[in-house]
User: Which sequence fits this backbone?
């Protein structure tokens, strides 16, 4: 009754002569797609989901298209739309009469809400306080209010001034070998499916032989790319992160540039969410690499093209960011070439709800095996350039993924209620002997910390500055994972 009364109020505000048919039909279309995502994938339509939708490119969005979406649209959108077109509403003939009617209808719905609240206030208050996410389950108010907030942010944000950061940064490297650091930003990779982190399946056949350090207790800043990626490159922490501020403030890549470090970003994941806007960046285009980009998206090996030359030719301190498409779902099966189909049977469709859970997990694990291979290729390139450079690779995923635990799939749940599968991310470090020597790294200390100390994406900003030997007053050594283990 409460929801009915609320919807009555909202439709009273939306339904006006002439425009009401297109409005209601548009709402039917959006609500059908929202309901589909909620039922099929356990999604919540809150603010960050709306940000995701507006900032997603079309090839990412089309990976959700499938036969069942069209069936849903047929029954919940197409047929009801015919009824909407056939029905005739009679409005009061004068504008005054129309307004009076609207006010009366709003009054009735407010009275009903008030009556319910007066009797059940305590129950509702505790229900909503303990489960704030249920607001994101009421269709269509969930996406309507979030879209309204998003539009407001977008319009108001134009007036916020842009802040630079760490303009005092200088490169303090000693010795004549330049640092060459490859930072690999993962996608939808969850820590518990790495055999390096104790997963019972061998998903790390390559990295397990590379002498890497895998940090076992790392949490993400958000549960979706649009939150985690800007957050991990910003000086803000999970606790202080504000999306608006992140869009109007420089991040760690800008600070590196202030210190004249050669910074570049190569993207295979549909964009860097603003963090590479002011540095050299390349978006991989599927048409340029037909062999590696069969489905309109590219296998991550595409990022290895030209990497060896970039590393070899580095004259000064260099940071290269590779943005993987990693384990982006629900089309996990399109993330790896056929020879990496190690665990079978797989789920070779976007309709993961029609696959068994085991099939989904198998397919997802294959994406981890493939990421393991790509990372080992990066390490091989860096290792072979250890003579003239100090090389290192740091890998960090943006957020995790649910694979059917408690019936939840994909990611993007509100942080407070998101399961650990969406929040624990892999972080893997490889350092060449020259790098370890140049930075006085106490490897045994790092390995011990990797097992016990909880880290998060908050550490990336300061660890990256430390790895690039950059000094600035915004650098906090307590958040630099390497400075905690420096030989005296
Ligand atoms: Zn992501």
Assistant:
């Amino acid at each position: 009754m409460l929801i009915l009364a609320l919807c009555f109020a909202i439709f009273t505000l939306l339904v006006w002569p002439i425009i009401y048919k297109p409005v209601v039909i548009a709402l039917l279309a959006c609500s059908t797609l929202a309901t589909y995502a909620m039922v099929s994938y356990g999604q919540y339509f809150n603010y960050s989901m709306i940000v995701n939708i507006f900032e997603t490119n079309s090839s990412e969005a089309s990976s959700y298209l499938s036969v069942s979406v069209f069936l849903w649209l047929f029954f919940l959108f197409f047929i009801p739309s015919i009824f909407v077109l056939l029905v005739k509403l009679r409005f009061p003939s004068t504008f005054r009469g129309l307004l009076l009617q609207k006010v009366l209808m709003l009054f009735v719905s407010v009275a009903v809400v008030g009556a319910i609240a007066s009797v059940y206030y305590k129950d509702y208050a505790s229900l909503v306080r303990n489960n704030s996410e249920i607001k994101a389950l009421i269709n269509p108010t969930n996406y309507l209010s979030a879209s309204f907030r998003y539009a407001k942010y977008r319009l108001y944000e134009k007036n916020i001034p842009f802040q630079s950061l760490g303009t005092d940064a200088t490169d303090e490297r000693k010795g004549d070998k330049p640092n060459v650091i490859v930072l690999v930003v993962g996608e939808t990779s969850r820590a518990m499916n790495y055999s390096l982190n104790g997963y019972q399946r061998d998903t790390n056949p390559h990295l397990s032989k590379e002498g890497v350090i895998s940090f076992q207790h790392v949490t993400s800043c958000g549960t979706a790319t649009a939150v985690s990626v800007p957050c991990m490159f910003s000086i803000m922490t999970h606790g202080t992160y504000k999306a608006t501020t992140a869009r109007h403030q420089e991040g760690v890549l800008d600070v590196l540039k202030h210190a004249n470090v050669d910074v570049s970003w190569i993207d295979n994941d549909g964009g860097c969410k603003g963090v590479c806007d002011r540095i050299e960046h390349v978006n991989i285009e599927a048409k340029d690499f037909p062999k590696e980009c069969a489905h309109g998206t590219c296998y991550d090996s595409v990022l290895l093209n030209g990497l060896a030359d970039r590393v070899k030719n580095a004259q000064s301190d260099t940071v290269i960011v590779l943005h993987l498409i990693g384990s982006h779902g629900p089309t996990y099966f399109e993330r790896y070439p056929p020879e990496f189909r190690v665990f079978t049977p797989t789920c070779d469709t976007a309709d993961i709800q029609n696959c068994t859970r085991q099939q989904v997990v198998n397919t997802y694990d294959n994406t981890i095996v493939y990421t393991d291979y790509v990372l080992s290729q990066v390490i091989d390139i860096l290792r072979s350039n250890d003579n003239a450079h100090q090389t290192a690779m740091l890998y960090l995923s943006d957020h995790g993924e649910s694979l059917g635990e408690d019936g939840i799939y994909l990611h993007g749940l509100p942080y407070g209620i998101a399961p650990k599968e969406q929040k624990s991310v892999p972080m893997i470090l490889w350092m060449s002997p020259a790098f370890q020597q140049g930075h006085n790294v106490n490897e045994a200390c790092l390995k011990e910390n990797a097992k016990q100390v909880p880290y998060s994406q908050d550490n990336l900003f300061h660890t990256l500055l430390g790895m690039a030997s950059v000094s600035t007053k915004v650098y906090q050594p307590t958040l630099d994972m390497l400075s905690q283990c420096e030989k005296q």
In short: The two ends are 68 Å apart (CA to CA). The mean pLDDT is 92. Residues 162 and 248 are 5 Å apart (CA to CA).
